[in-house]
Amino acid sequence: MLNAKYVVPALLSFFLCCLNAADAQNSRSIKTIIVDAGHGGKDYGATGSYEGGLGSYEKNVTLAISNKLVAALRKQLPDVKIIPTRTTDVYQSPPEKADIANNNKGDLFICIHADAVDLKTGRRQTGTHQETRYKVKVTGKGKKKKKTSTPYTVTVATYEYYKIGSQRAGTSIWLFAAHKTSDKIKALMKNEEDEEMNVTASSDSTYNSIDFSAPEYRMMAKVHADRYQQKSIKLATFIDQEVDKTDRNALGINQRQKGIWVLQATNMPAVLIETGFITNHDDERYLNSDKGQQELAESIADAVKLYKEQVDNNKATPGANVEVRKEEQRILKEAGAGKYITRTSTVLKKIGISQADFKVDLYDDGDIDGDMVSVYYNGKLIVDNKKLTDKPLTLSLTTATGIKENELLIYAENEGSIPPNTALMIVTEGDNRTEVRITADSKKNGVIVFSRK
Ligand SMILES: [Zn+2]
Q1: Most buried of the four, 177, 192, 245, 379, by CB within 10 Å?
Q2: Domain range for residue 394?
Q3: How much distance in Å is there from the Cα of 38 to the middle of ligand 1?
Q4: Could you report the per-residue pLDDT of 96-108, keeping only the tens digit for each?
Q5: pTM of the entire structure?
């Protein structure tokens, strides 16, 4: 499970320039892979504490899988240096883990974790027991007032309380979210030797006093973040596919608007794998079994091998880059990273939703001037370049399970004849109706957050 302390619940997209397509293919072969066993030492991670659970600790599960993954990778890729962040039960802070990856100049960073959910408490009657209570009687008045209490016995139920294991099970993969760049930028800036830096860096020697607000540096950082994100998505896609080949439930790739510290701070493509739910009866047993650990390790190693082959093929085949670029764009699109990431996003309103399903109607606000919009819901494109009119554009939405804050993002395709692009949104949920006015333009997206009550 991700340590909440390092998971920044970020909502604001924050990108200033466009994808630099010409620069994005600069594949270098994979020479070093960092494998991180999540948590360790005093940081136990999640535990399997529920009725029927094994009471296992995430830090031990991640270490066992990581050790097997390191062995599998060394076997499959004998020419690649495989560096584990830890091989024993020691504590490392996320910055320490990121430093190991950066100092060893890793080409890939793979974090192994196990997932957990907050568990419900159950209660059952185990029998009855006797309790003594007292009947109090007051007699007399003033100084003669007297209190007598008579004991009597009652039979009451005896209950036992227990945690109920979660239903949720399966393997999911998490990525660095491109719109949270600050730690990634710092990691990039720290590494002065990085030859890739020179691709877009200006030739002046002010590396040590970089002004992060200067557009050229932001641009450079963005180009790098994009490059890593596409590669991370590619690796994540392979891992998801390999896991899907086993009997496990492959829950897919996750790059919601959340920052994951350890992924953002590493100067390389990075993925975090929630191998399974330690709070689920079957998953916990799988994660603690030799067979399960080995199967996961091999699935991940197979995916890394495929990824490396693709990187190597790109180098060997000039002209293949265009196709790869298209493929990356497709994966990027499927994984939900739309063109909106090139603009700043502003949360205009948060709306509490008490039911799973709700309806959103979109109209042009004010004068009908030909405003065109695209709409993304939780990063997925749901309306592609449609005109707003005085007739509603109706969206039937469902709050996603496991996501507290669902984001609806309005991307302005144009600004109509009267800028900016303005929309009136009416949200209907049961008998509740909420109106929101949304503005978006060529620099800003409008975001409405729906949080499940
Ligand atoms: Zn974890």
Answers
A1: 177
A2: 343-452
A3: 6
A4: 888 899 899 999 9
A5: 0.57
The residues with which 412 forms a beta bridge, in sequence order, are 373
Residues 179 and 92 in one domain: yes
Residue 154 has pLDDT above 90, yes or no: yes
Cα 14 from Cα 221, distance rounded (Å)? 12
**Do residues 314 and 226 both lie within one domain?**
yes
The answer on 155 and 26 residing in a single domain is no
Model confidence pLDDT, tens digit, residues 323-375? 445 544 554 454 445 667 666 778 888 898 888 899 999 998 877 888 889 99
Q: Which one, of 365, 153, 181, lies nearest residue 260 by Cα?
A: 181
Our count of domains for the chain comes to 3
Mean pLDDT of 255-276: 73
- Centre of ligand 1 to C-alpha 274, Å, is 7
Distance (angstroms) between ligand 1 centre and the Cα of 43 equals 9
| DSSP-derived secondary structure for 30-55 | --EEEEEE-SBTTB---B--STT---
What's the CA-to-centroid distance between 162 and ligand 1, angstroms?
Answer: 24
CATH number for the domain spanning 446: value is 2.60.40
Q: How many Å lie between the centroid of ligand 1 and the Cα of residue 401?
A: 20
Q: What separation in Å is there between the alpha carbon of 148 and the centre of ligand 1?
A: 60
Do residue 256 and residue 180 come from a single domain? yes
Chain mean pLDDT for the chain: 78
pLDDT of the residue at 177: 55
Sign of CA dihedral 381, 383, 386, 389: negative
**pLDDT of res. 212:** 39
What is the pLDDT at residue 94?
82
CA atoms lying within 13 Å on the CB side of residue 274: 28
Please report, for the domain that includes residue 196, its CATH number: 3.40.630.40
Q: Which residues pair with 358 in a beta bridge?
A: 397
Mapped onto helix, strand or coil, the DSSP state of residue 19 is coil
Please tell me whether residues 127 and 219 are part of one structural domain.
no
CA of 130 to the centre of ligand 1 (A): 45
Side chain identity at residue 299, one-letter code: S
